[in-house]
Each structure stands twice: as structure tokens, then as C-alpha cells.
Specification:
- This protein is an alpha/beta fold.
- It is built from 14 helices and 9 strands.
- Strands 1, 2, 3, 4, 5, 6, 7, 8 and 9 form a 9-stranded parallel beta sheet that branches.
- Strand 4, helix 4 and strand 5 form a beta-alpha-beta unit.
- Helix 1 packs antiparallel against helix 11, helix 4 runs parallel beside helix 6 and helix 9 crosses helix 10.
- The chain is globular.
- The structure holds flavin mononucleotide.
- Flavin mononucleotide binds next to loops.
């Protein structure tokens, strides 16, 4: 039996999985600021079973990520079993998380992600299969409050009854996508209804909000997604209430993030860093000029130079 590295004695601070953002370079930068848990981007069980090179690359973690959770999506008991057997051969993974929240048509159309909320017995069987097959220390599930209607209590009870060790909930339905008001009362009801730890997620972006959500819901932790994009230092702020992060530190972190992207993706890292440049430069003087400029650069060191100059000398607008 593996040692359980994630303790819920104090509230845990988790970086949410965000496909296209929370890759190894970003997670390793975030980790420095005190995230208790980082989760891979969603991996398709099918892709794992087919030995997809891209998926295996996405599985890699930074040495700092300890514990590390890998999130998988699936709609089939047979395939999820095979996918977990493959993950069993990889060391350094502590948790396997099942995605039951993704709203995008491509995923929902395959019967995975938030689709599973429409078939709770199937969701339960998939969770149980992961739990029974996995050699990792924990199994977790990430859900929404429902698909169209909220059936969050039923969902929570099924997750618990199927053997999951903890649950993360994004406080919206599938129909609510990423915009509807987050229903923190419903999250509190889920927490009350079950005895495994529950992590609250949705629109948490400050110390005050995190504190309020923890108190209001009674949850065992908070999970932060979009609030960390362009601000990997948010975990330090969430824990300490410290608002100010110096531009010198920001500059250092942004350069480290860029360098890690190049190490991980090679040349392609340049194009992939554009979206991060856009979010990092928000609020800086000359941000739109910088965005136009970097959109045209594909040379690794030229891009680095422009980035370095901008953030070294950057002032807020
Ligand atoms: C661009 C993007 C990608 C996402 N990718 C995933 C994913 O791969 N797996 C998942 O469970 N949720 C995914 N989510 C949902 C987030 O994990 C999170 O539940 C949601 O954004 C609400 O939290 P936030 O308000 O802190 O961002 C994604 C959200 C966004 C905006």
C-alpha cells in the first residue's frame, strides 16, 4: 500500500486541470507558490490505450509535483480499466482522477466528461473500476452540480458509494458552462451529504474569496483554475493574504516559465507561450503592442529577448 501524501487535516489548495494551460511547465511554476496538489490536463483513456505519443508526453510531471494527480476521461468500463493498467506502470502518480465535468461537445458526444452525470450508475461503475484496478494511493472524481438540472446530492452520494477517496466540485451545471453564478450553497449541501473530503471549485480568485468559500461550504479545500492563469503566484496570495507580488519576482517567474516551455516543447513552445504572454501582460503599459509583436516572432531567443526586456522594465498602466 502506498503512503497517502494528501492529508486533509488543513484545507488543501489545488490547481485545477485546465486543458491547454496546466501543462508541466505551468504546474511546476505554480507549485513553487504552495499549491498542495497539481493535476495533469485531461487525458483521454482511449489515447492512453492507443499509446498516443502526445498523451504520454502530457503525462510527465515535474519533480516538484508530489503528490501528483492524473486526470482521465472515459465512458467505458473496459477502456478505463486498460487505461489504469497503463498508468499503473508509471511511477510518480499518486492519484487518478475521473473527469465528470467537461462540457465541450467533442467530449460529451463521446459519452465522457459531464455526460457521465446523466448516467450515474455508469459513472459509479467507472469510478469503482478505477479504484479496483489502480495501484495508486487515491482515486478522486471531479464533477459539476448536474448536467441540465442540479442533482448534486445524488452525484455526491454515488461518488462516495463507488469508492472515491475525495471529490472536487465545480459549482455549476454543464448548461451553466463557465459563466452561470457558482452555487456555493449546493457545494455546501454536497459536503454535508457525504463523509469523504470535498474540494470546492469555481470563480475563486482571491484570499478573501477562498476564505469565504471554505467557511461557507465547510469544504476541505479549494481548487483554482482561471485565477492562476497569468498569475501562478496566486497560491501564495491565497494562503497569506499578501496582495503585492513585486514586478521583479513576476519577471523572474515569467522567464522561468518561458524557459521551461522551451525545454518541454522545443520550438513549438514559442507559439504556445503567446497565450501566456497575453495573460501575463494584462495591466502592463504597452501590453497590446507586446502582444502584436510576439504574435510575429517564432525564433526562440528573439522571443525571449523581447519578453525579458518588456517584463524587466515593465510598469503597470
Ligand atoms: C481552458 C479551460 C480548460 C479546462 N480543462 C479542464 C480539464 O482538462 N479537466 C477538468 O476537469 N476541468 C477543466 N476545466 C474546468 C476547470 O478545471 C474548472 O473547473 C473551471 O474553470 C472553474 O474553476 P475556475 O473558476 O477556478 O477556473 C477547464 C476550464 C477551462 C477554462
Amino acid at each position: 500500500m502506498m503512503i497517502n501524501k494528501l492529508s486533509f487535516e488543513k484545507p488543501v489548495y489545488v490547481l485545477a486541470p485546465l486543458a491547454g494551460f496546466t501543462d508541466l511547465p505551468f504546474r511546476s511554476v505554480v507549485k513553487k507558490f504552495g499549491a498542495d496538489l497539481t493535476v495533469s490536463e485531461m487525458l483521454s483513456s482511449n489515447a492512453l490505450v492507443h499509446n498516443s505519443k502526445k498523451t504520454l508526453h502530457m503525462l510527465q510531471k515535474s519533480a516538484l509535483e508530489d503528490p501528483y494527480s492524473v486526470q482521465i476521461a472515459s465512458s467505458s468500463i473496459e477502456i478505463v480499466k486498460e487505461a489504469v493498467e497503463i498508468l499503473n506502470t508509471h511511477d510518480g502518480i499518486d492519484i487518478i482522477d475521473l473527469n465528470c465535468g467537461c462540457p465541450v461537445p467533442k467530449v460529451v458526444g463521446h459519452g465522457s466528461g459531464s455526460s457521465l452525470l446523466l448516467d450515474l450508475p455508469l459513472m459509479g461503475s467507472i469510478i469503482q473500476t478505477i479504484k479496483d484496478t489502480s495501484n495508486k494511493s487515491m482515486t478522486s472524481v471531479k464533477v459539476r452540480l448536474g448536467f441540465e438540472k442540479k442533482n448534486h446530492i445524488e452525484i455526491a452520494k454515488m461518488v462516495e458509494a463507488s469508492g472515491a477517496d475525495f471529490l472536487a466540485v465545480h459549482g455549476r451545471t454543464r448548461v451553466g458552462k463557465f459563466k452561470a453564478d457558482v452555487d456555493y450553497d449546493a457545494i455546501a449541501e454536497m459536503k454535508k451529504a457525504i463523509s469523504i473530503p470535498v474540494i470546492a471549485n469555481g470563480d475563486i480568485d482571491s484570499y478573501k474569496k477562498a476564505k469565504w468559500v471554505l467557511e461557507h461550504t465547510g469544504c476541505d479545500g479549494v481548487m483554482i483554475g482561471r485565477g492562476a492563469v497569468g498569475a501562478p503566484w496566486i497560491f501564495h496570495q491565497l494562503r497569506t493574504g499578501e496582495e503585492n507580488i513585486s514586478n521583479i519576482l513576476k519577471h523572474e517567474i515569467i522567464m522561468e516559465h518561458y524557459d521551461k516551455m522551451i525545454t518541454f516543447y522545443g520550438q513549438h513552445g514559442v507559439a504556445m507561450f503567446r497565450k501566456h504572454t497575453h495573460t501575463y501582460s494584462k495591466g502592463y503599459r504597452g501590453a497590446s503592442k507586446l502582444r502584436d509583436e510576439v504574435n510575429r516572432i517564432s525564433d526562440i531567443s528573439e522571443y525571449r529577448g523581447v519578453l525579458d526586456d518588456f517584463f524587466k522594465n515593465g510598469t503597470l498602466a
